[in-house]
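Retry 2 of 3 after timeout on previous attempt. Resubmitting structure tokens to design endpoint.
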């Protein structure tokens, strides 16, 4: 099914140039821009360089499509034929879409309320202070005594995370023969004070000695500021006092740790810029270390700041984050990009989750499913008392189903009951007959706007998760003796399910082929690309009824929803409106996996990593333009986003294990390359609704087999289906042994193990 590019092109014409404030001489509009996407502006020095980059990155066929302006072959849900061996490289290499621009990852410390953004230009944006100011620190360099600094072009900066996944950022750039590397991470100066620890290393790449200068511009961060320009000057006068940058009242803004440097503070046209000079011989490198607290510190903190040692703090930083990322569930997969991304995103959530307002219930559930129970409890304690938040009830009940922590449930029960009663009270408002007939919204939650920008209406998305929370509340309350509440809510939930199903049945548009399942009872128009944009259908798709347990994934109505979403609402397997909203694809992807559409799931999986996050710092964005990669040019675009973070974690989790009623699927959506010969997949301490599961899969498929060892859940016995998918060139399963004995219950790509209760070894022969 092919998708028209009209939605994207129309959106392009309506949008402002994201580089409107960049000087004209830095702009270059290529042939593809002129023909297909009028506002796509790419900063490049010359046409020659642009053509060279295109030739290197894209295949000849894709390059030709861009040059001719014909993008119709790529603005579609999926290729006409998806390879069974789909991998990251095949998704990226077969499409002309660029990586996400421009990342602004955060650094910080677990449970600390402050965090710092690292902009693509290397600039650091600090938390807002009590007086409303926010420090924006921009690094620049110059060569020679009379060299002039300038903001670095973000297209020329390479960024990566420390060790590939830890929440510290390394930036690299070269200008005028001077190579600069910046390493920045956070450290606790004491129990309350968070600081950025920075090391700049300047390398003279020329064959002769010269003076190099590091400049730090102290600016004032404002919302929407274009990262390519210096911000407004800092609001207070600054002075250089020994190695300290201080405000008029003496509070310390920054400290130069490295001793004996030639440093001076310039104040020109209200700008405050620190210049640090170093003399470099040919090919010589020197480092400059600084510490910048998240908030200005009093004079009595001078010695604390001066004693900071970068290497010592970096060692502590590494030990801390290794422990945090290894102490709960571990998914160990043989693909570094995916492994690093998943770990980086856990760290990002641990830094951001307790202050985030971006669907915190989804974040709580994602962290629960990785064993971060205490962190999830803290988040639930904040959102569960909001009794009108339907998602918080659902997240709270899922927390209990994973942990079986009855002490926690007893404390949370009053809020759980109040939230459930709020749903019942709201539903009662719509239980009114019209001319003695039930209206299509009978028994549903009253009109609402589930997301910013969505129209006020009745939405099955809202009802799905209200029902799921209500039904789960009835299930869990009986386990702590609240039988009366449980029975009352179970009756309410059953009535709710009946009302939803009746509404869905009556709302289906049968005047198109196949029929169309709308997102709500009064949105049964004929589906089109414009309809998808107007209703946000890919984001608010009724396919969420599968996760809520209202529709089975193989129900024909789910096929209807998936068909029309794929036809008009996806691009490269991701939710597409005027922009892509990549992380809202989770419910669609879950239904595909449960329907056995694994090839589509894997394509979507890799598209999420390719276009829903930056490819080196793994910074997610809630939305971006897939054609340009832009989220915008401001430092404060909505990234990283904890909801988006959490959906990446969810997607990896269901690729490795997913519950479906009384069945536990193991390795249902793993890319085939992960079981290439010599590769290994491990699942350690993974929570499920049945209890903890551990698994190791080792491939010797060249020799003819894949060996899987499973420690199954013990809290409840599940029907376990093991999926085994090595590269397709090795064929399909032809023979199975379980604990050394022949096993007959298997298909081409899966083994039905039934209810196993102890450690089990499965050998699949190919």
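Retry 2 succeeded. Sequence:
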């Amino acid at each position: 099914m092919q998708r028209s590019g009209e939605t994207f092109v129309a959106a392009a014409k309506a949008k402002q140039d994201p580089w409107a404030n960049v000087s004209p001489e830095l702009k270059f509009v290529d042939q593809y821009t002129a023909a297909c996407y009028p506002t796509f502006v790419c900063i490049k020095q010359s046409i020659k360089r642009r053509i060279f980059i295109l030739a290197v990155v894209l295949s000849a066929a894709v390059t030709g499509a861009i040059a001719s302006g014909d993008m119709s072959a790529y603005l579609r849900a999926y290729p006409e034929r998806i390879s069974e061996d789909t991998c990251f490289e095949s998704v990226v290499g077969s499409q002309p879409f660029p990586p996400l621009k421009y990342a602004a990852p955060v650094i910080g410390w677990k449970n600390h309320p402050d965090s710092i953004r690292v902009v693509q230009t290397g600039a650091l944006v600090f938390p807002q202070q009590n007086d409303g100011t926010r420090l924006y620190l921009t690094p620049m360099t110059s060569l020679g005594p009379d060299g002039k600094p300038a903001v670095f072009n973000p297209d020329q900066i390479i960024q990566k995370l420390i060790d590939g996944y830890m929440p510290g950022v390394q930036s690299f750039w070269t200008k005028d023969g001077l190579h600069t590397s910046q390493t920045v991470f956070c450290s606790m100066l004491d129990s309350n004070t968070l600081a950025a620890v920075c090391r700049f290393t300047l390398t003279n790449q020329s064959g002769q000695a010269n003076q190099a200068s590091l400049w730090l511009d102290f600016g004032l961060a404002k919302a929407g500021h274009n990262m390519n320009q210096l911000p407004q000057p800092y609001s207070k006068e600054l002075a250089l006092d020994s190695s300290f940058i201080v405000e008029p009242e003496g509070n310390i803004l920054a400290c130069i740790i490295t001793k004996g440097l030639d440093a001076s503070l310039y104040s020109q046209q209200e700008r405050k810029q620190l210049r640090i000079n170093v003399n470099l011989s040919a090919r010589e490198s020197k480092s400059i270390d600084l510490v910048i607290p998240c908030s200005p510190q009093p004079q009595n903190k001078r010695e604390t700041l001066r004693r900071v040692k970068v290497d010592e703090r970096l060692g502590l930083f590494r030990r801390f984050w290794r422990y945090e990322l290894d102490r709960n569930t571990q998914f160990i997969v043989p693909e570094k990009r995916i492994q690093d991304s998943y770990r980086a995103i856990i760290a990002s959530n641990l830094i951001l989750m307790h202050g985030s307002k971006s669907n915190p219930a989804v974040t709580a559930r994602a962290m629960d499913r990785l064993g971060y129970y205490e962190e999830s409890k803290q988040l639930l304690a904040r959102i569960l008392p909001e009794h009108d938040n339907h998602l918080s009830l659902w997240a709270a009940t899922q927390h209990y189903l994973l942990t079986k922590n009855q002490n926690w449930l007893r404390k949370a029960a009053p809020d759980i009951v109040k939230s459930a009663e709020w749903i019942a009270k709201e539903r009662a408002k719509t239980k009114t007959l019209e001319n003695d007939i039930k209206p299509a919204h009978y028994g549903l939650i009253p009109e609402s706007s589930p997301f910013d920008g969505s129209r006020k209406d009745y939405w099955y998305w809202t009802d799905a998760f209200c029902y799921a929370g209500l039904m789960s509340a009835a299930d869990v309350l009986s386990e702590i003796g609240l039988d009366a509440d449980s029975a009352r809510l179970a009756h309410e939930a059953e009535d709710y399910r009946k009302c939803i199903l009746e509404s869905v049945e009556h709302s289906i548009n049968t005047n198109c082929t196949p029929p169309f399942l709308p997102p709500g009872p009064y949105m049964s128009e004929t589906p089109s690309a414009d309809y998808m944009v107007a209703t946000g259908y890919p984001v608010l798709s009724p396919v969420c009824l599968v996760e809520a347990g209202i529709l089975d994934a193989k129900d024909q109505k789910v096929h209807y929803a998936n068909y029309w979403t794929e036809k008009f609402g996806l691009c490269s397997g991701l939710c597409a409106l005027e922009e892509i909203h990549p992380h809202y694809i989770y419910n669609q992807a879950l239904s595909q996996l449960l329907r056995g559409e694994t090839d589509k799931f894997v394509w979507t999986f890799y598209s999420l990593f390719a276009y829903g996050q930056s490819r080196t710092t793994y910074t997610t964005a809630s939305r971006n333009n897939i054609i340009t990669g832009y989220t915008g040019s401001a430092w404060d675009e909505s990234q990283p986003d904890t909801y988006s973070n959490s959906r990446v974690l969810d997607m990896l989790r269901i690729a490795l294990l997913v519950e479906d009623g009384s069945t536990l699927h193991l390795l249902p959506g793993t890319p085939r390359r992960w079981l290439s010969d010599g590769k290994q997949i491990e699942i350690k301490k993974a929570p499920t609704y049945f209890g903890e599961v551990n698994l190791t899969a080792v491939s010797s498929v060249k020799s003819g087999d894949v060996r899987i060892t499973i420690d199954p859940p013990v809290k409840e016995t599940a029907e376990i289906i093991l999926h085994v998918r090595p590269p397709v060139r090795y064929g399909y399963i032809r023979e199975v042994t379980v604990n050394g004995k022949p096993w007959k219950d298997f298909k081409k790509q899966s083994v039905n193990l039934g209810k196993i209760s102890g450690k089990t070894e499965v050998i699949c022969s190919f």
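Attempt log closed. Confidence is low (pLDDT under 50) at residues 1-5, 12-68.
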